[in-house]
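In this section we walk through a basic example: taking a raw amino acid sequence and producing a predicted 3D structure, encoded as discrete structure tokens. The instruction is simple. Fold the sequence below.
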Amino acid sequence: MNHKDILMHSAVVVNDRGEQYGNPEFLFEVAAQMATLITGKQLTKYDITSVLEAVKLARRRVNPLLDDNYVDNVNYTAFSAQFSGEAFTAADTPAQTTEEDDIAAMAKRFAPIKKETSNAQYDVKFDGTNTTVKPSEGY
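The resulting token sequence is shown next.
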């Protein structure tokens, strides 16, 4: 496929998906809400489309000859562009950032939630067959 074919096919695919699944903006919003519940991090439609772009880039790396990877990525990138206005303001985007800054910001955004852990001590005993674990005396 040449570049014009990719763009034309991308338009056909996004229209077909809209007919099959409904309003894509609504679907990305629902996906963001579900992902927020799963991860415990507030995610947006923009985050979802960015992750899907990453999936397509990873698939493209494995199979660079599969047109579907390019077609879908065009559509995910278009949705990312559409949702970026809601996700960011001029204050959110510094004039110049490095790729390392971008990666660090993304990693921080998706970092696991730290849970408090107890300082309790445990006695662990193994008699060759069985293991017992119980809180140490004084805890």
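Looking at the output, two observations stand out. The chain has one domain: 3-109. The longest helix spans residues 67-87. In the next section we compare this with other chains.
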